[in-house]
Amino acid sequence: LSQLENLVRDFDRLHVGDKNAKLRKSAARPTFVARIFYDGVRLLKEADALVRIDPCPANKRACLVISSFLSSFFTEFVAKLPIDFIENIEANMADAGVPKHSLEIRTRNLVLPQLIIDREENRKSSRRFLDVQRMAQQKESGVELDIDEEEVKQCQTMTKEEAVLMIQSFERVYQAISRRDYLRHVMQKAMDLRSEKKKMDPLQAVIKIQARTRGYFTRKKVREMREKEHELLGISVKGTLLQTFPVASRLCPRQYSTEKDTSFKHLQSSSTSIQALLNDIKSTYFQIGDDRRSDGPRAAAAAFDEQLENLYADLYLRRVITNPTRILAMDSLISQRASISIGGTQFSFDLRNLMHMFAVIPLQLHTWSSSFARPWILLIGDELSGKSAWVDALSTKTNAVLIRLNKRVLAKNRSLTIGTVLKVFVRRNDHSIVSIDRLESFRAAPDSGNTYRSSILSSLKALSKTSAFVIGMSRIEEITQTVADYFPIKIHMEKLDNISKIGVITHSLHRLGDPNRIPKLPQRLTEMRKATSKYNSGGTVQFVQRKFARIARNYV
């Protein structure tokens, strides 16, 4: 309560000061604005902790209002500060007495409607059946090759004689290597037979046979126990097929809870300003009402939306809707500096805070009221820079459906059919994230003859007429203006600094498992940082996994 009172007082002082031209141009104003922002960040963490302790409607509404204030304050005030101040905002706030760890936004809980939570829980069980059905379809249709049409056109073909000569040369090399390995094996066997002069003691032979027999039966027993464990956990195909729930109920549950939280009514009816929140906390927070009773009447469950779930299953089988490929949470990802372009202003800021301001908070608030806008975001970065990892973490954190549009999906399916089904699904379930990859193909003006470009343009045009939330990904910044105009926010993922690089290395080593499994841990992380100086975040992770995962596997 005291932190909220201080925030309201400082915010009112800022409004009063901005009416004066001299105070608006004062040198102390940027520090004062930054302090208000980070006081809001600290208050948001306190509200998140209260929701975790007592998830009552009053605490949920407080978390929503503070999140809304923080997002709007960043756009209206922080983004308009001098660029030199924003670039060194952490150092400036450290001089003002604000520690660095308090500048990062980390929330463990999101206030979402119960309908979205129940719907995601039911889809988790139905995805197991859909995975088995997808595997069966792949087995019938065979393996499809992922071939890019543009790369095939650019490839230089060879004549039949050149192809025959190349095949013959490779076959001769293969036969020579196989013959050399066979002769080496025969010679080693002969040398072993010649060197074996001492006969084995019969008692030692019996002991050796018994030891190998016990080892065989032990390994067999462990393998059977592991297979049984996988069946019980449902992580094997047999375990998935032997689930206790019937297929129909797992794929299409009859109904899910649509109970409306009381905080939704508060958010719609009353003002979302921090001043109104302060007045409500002082007047009604400690009053015991019906919304704080756990034994109150529950709303009746609504009928199951079978058409929506059938659309979800169709898009999931087409691999348009996918599970996040990584199990990392957004708070566990190593943040870095990113350059953002918004409203004609470009500055550098912390990537995690930017994703919270422009993605997490808008997605959270839009579930309660459609009046909250969700501007589209364009992520720009090199290959393996972490764009897909942040999108997956965002989908996991917000319980949003992750829709991927890339060349592989559009090449395997009819783009017109996918566009129609996707448009209907997004309208019925707008709590979704549409991820469009490889936008660097729009370097020049869109070509009408290119299937992928025309499909992406038609999808962007159709999604712009809905309330969909789209995140585009590109490796270059110079794309055609027709596509760039769809994304008002552009985030350029910069190269990792030394501290972030060491954080990525440490986190990758930690994810390998028990450190005792890796006998040759690096003595100094600075040596690993120098070895990965040319890599970005994804390349650094792959380097660590290639070097230490193999050692750990051989050691075990």
List the helices and strands and how they pair.
Layout: H1 2-18, H2 21-24, H3 29-53, H4 57-76, H5 83-87, H6 89-95, H7 114-141, H8 149-154, H9 160-195, H10 202-233, H11 237-241, H12 247-251, E1 255-256, H13 262-269, H14 274-284, E2 302-303, H15 306-317, E3 337-342, E4 345-350, H16 351-366, E5 377-380, H17 387-398, E6 401-405, H18 407-412, H19 415-428, E7 432-436, H20 451-464, E8 469-474, H21 481-484, E9 489-493, H22 498-511, H23 525-531, H24 537-555
Parallel strand pairs: 5-8, 5-9, 6-7, 7-8
Antiparallel strand pairs: 1-2, 3-4, 3-9
Can you describe this structure?
The chain has 556 residues and is an alpha/beta fold. It has helices spanning 2-18, 21-24, 29-53, 57-76, 83-87, 89-95, 114-141, 149-154, 160-195, 202-233, 237-241, 247-251, 262-269, 274-284, 306-317, 351-366, 387-398, 407-412, 415-428, 451-464, 481-484, 498-511, 525-531, 537-555, and strands at residues 255-256, 302-303, 337-342, 345-350, 377-380, 401-405, 432-436, 469-474, 489-493. The longest helix has 36 residues, at 160-195.
